[in-house]
């Protein structure tokens, strides 16, 4: 028999897992972008693969937010991800940080998903039954 506490615990664990995996995806994205912009290699297949995996996860989280009645977070996340995909095409070897549109949009999307990860982690922690006061 499933109790309310079990449902809350499952939901809390799901939120914290999504937040933790989002953090890992962001670290992977940051490392890939850093290597692409500062590396001397001629082939960045691994880095672009890492970006693709990260974008896929972030899209998954975006749809989960929309389905979990967090439509505003989901909609903004979708726009941020679309912007990052647009901006990524102009970020390559030797690019210096600046306020040019592609870099600013990509950096803003990264910052947005850091906020989403924190929201997921905090929401999971606050929802967990063991953190509730009697």
Distance linking N and C termini: 23 Å
CATH topology: Four Helix Bundle (Hemerythrin (Met), subunit A)
- The structural domain count equals 1
- Portion in strands: under 5%
Q: Helix and strand string, N-terminal first?
A: HHHH
Rounded radius of gyration (Å): 17 Å
The count of β-strands is: 0
Q: Class by helix and strand content? A: mainly alpha
Low-pLDDT regions: none
Shape: elongated
Query: Treating each run of at least 4 consecutive H or I residues as one helix, how many helices?
Result: 4
CATH architecture assignment name: Up-down Bundle
CATH top-level class: Mainly Alpha
Helix percentage: over 70%
Strand count, sense and closure of the main sheet? none
| Mean pLDDT value | 88
Structure explained in plain terms:
- The model has no long low-confidence stretch (mean pLDDT 88).
- Helix 1 (4-38) runs antiparallel to helix 2 (45-67), helix 1 runs antiparallel to helix 4 and helix 3 (71-88) runs antiparallel to helix 4.
- By secondary structure, the protein is mainly alpha-helical.
- The chain has one domain: Four Helix Bundle (Hemerythrin (Met), subunit A).
- It starts with a helix and ends in a 7-residue tail after the last helix.
- The chain is elongated and about 60 Å long.
- It is 77% helix and 0% strand.
- It has four helices and no strands.
């Amino acid at each position: 028999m499933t109790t309310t506490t079990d449902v809350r615990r499952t939901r809390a664990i799901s939120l914290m897992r999504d937040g933790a995996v989002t953090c890992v995806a962001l670290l992977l994205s940051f490392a890939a972008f850093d290597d692409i912009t500062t590396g001397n290699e001629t082939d960045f297949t691994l880095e672009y693969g890492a970006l693709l995996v990260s974008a896929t996860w972030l899209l998954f989280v975006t749809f989960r937010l929309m389905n979990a009645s967090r439509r505003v977070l989901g909609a903004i996340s979708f726009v941020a991800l679309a912007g990052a995909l647009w901006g990524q095409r102009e970020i390559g070897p030797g690019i210096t940080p600046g306020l040019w549109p592609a870099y600013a949009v990509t950096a803003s999307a990264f910052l947005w998903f850091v906020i989403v990860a924190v929201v997921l982690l905090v929401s999971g922690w606050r929802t967990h039954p063991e953190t509730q006061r009697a």
